[in-house]
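Deviations from the work plan: none for this task. Representative record:
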Amino acid sequence: MTAPDPFRLDGRRALITGASRGIGRAIAESYAQAGARLALAARTTANLEQVASEVRDHGAEVHTFSADLTDAQAPTHLVEDAAEALGGLDIVVNNAGDGGHDGLTLDAYRRLLHVNLRAPVLIIQAARIYLLESNAPVVINVSSVSAKLGGAEPYGPLKAALSSYTVGLAREWGKDGIRVVAIAPGVIETDMTASYTNADWWTGNLSERVSLGRNGQVEEIAGVARFLASDAAAYITGAVISVDGGWVHQF
Amino acid sequence: MPVLERFRLHGRRAFVTGASRGIGRAVGLALAEAGADVALAARDEARLTELAAEIEPLGRRAHVVPLDLAKLESIEPAIHAAANALGGLDLLVNNAGVTYRAGFGIEDPAEFDRMFDINLGAVLFACQAARPHLAAGGGGVIVNIGSIAGTKGTGLYGASKEAVHALTRGFSREYANDGIRVVALAPGQVYTDMGARVRANPDEMNTLLHHTAQGRVADPAEIAAAVVYLASPAADFVTGTTIAIDGGRDFFARR
């Protein structure tokens, strides 16, 4: 008999938000391939059902939930519904985010505050009672390279807030054995970034901004998310892992 | 120019939020002592009027701006009115801030919103409102008061302050073409009303001092002195950065 593969997620119960597209969808697929049981959430269920059916082809158990994360109650209800469907929770991935490209207005500020920060915090808070019952509990927050770069629209500052929250919560929950980590993706080719990832102004000087000289792919975030959720990362907590092709390391 | 002249703020026009107490009050006084006219914004008009009376004998103008920074839509008109009253604006100090009772959690979504609105939203909209006035004067400086709590990760209050450090980086790039510098300070524990809750808790206070190299709390004037430096021509090549003023807060305990 061989030792269990520490990179597998067999039987782990994972909630993933923003799972209908982009990075969230790729994380769902990688977790399914690793043997996890999934609760997938998105604002609308149309795309989500498509993702669910593809993931079921890997033989994974999948439940889908529609949740409007701008709402103050929805995050808590989502966690309760997901935990009920899966019989508990081991992995929580706060991936849903709003990049907000409509300038700094009161409405945009409030929507981004709620989706990018309030919702993850409410989800984490509601998930705590389930994570305390888990043998391998972990929270993964999807931050952004924008946290380091800043930015006038509140997206970057709110991702910085999420990273700071991650670092502090890891310290707070360490005694309970709950790991709390963040991934800070660079520019990944998704619907959210499609407006510029192939534009000349962006690709023209890409190698000046990104050490690897190319955009990232969603699978390259999903792989890190799978690693961080697994026992292979059992001693990692409070870390914000940059997955950005070496963007901010340019001098 | 003699080096000490570089630290002067002769005739600069400043808008200071949260100016009625603590760090903001010390900043208002220090800027006036360094030669600036000041618009003092806060909810407590009576305290601002007292401060204005302290400043005017220094030969500087002090303009009282009653303002609740939780009302984000009221910030832009208040800044425009202050710029009109002072004949322009060269300096914005985003100092107003509130603590957060619920730590890492959200017990009341309205309480979460209010804290973020004051600590982050007000800074965003004040920068946006001040930008044309600063640019019209040929540049200018925005100083944001963040916190070492943001860098260390201390719950949602710290998260709001880390957001301020990040917006400082972002705005510094966007505003550089207008000649505007944007900088932040990250104070450690300062002797203010806001810090009273921590000072009243011996366990929390001992832990905090144990992790501070100097083993003491700062006076608000020590933060104000750094604001004067950052606002002055002495700091002309400083932008986008967050400077810690924390008595040496380390990951390791003091011996």
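The interface with chain B takes residues 72, 104, 106, 109-110, 113, 117-118, 121-122, 125, 146-152, 154, 156-172, 238 of chain A (CB under 8 Å).
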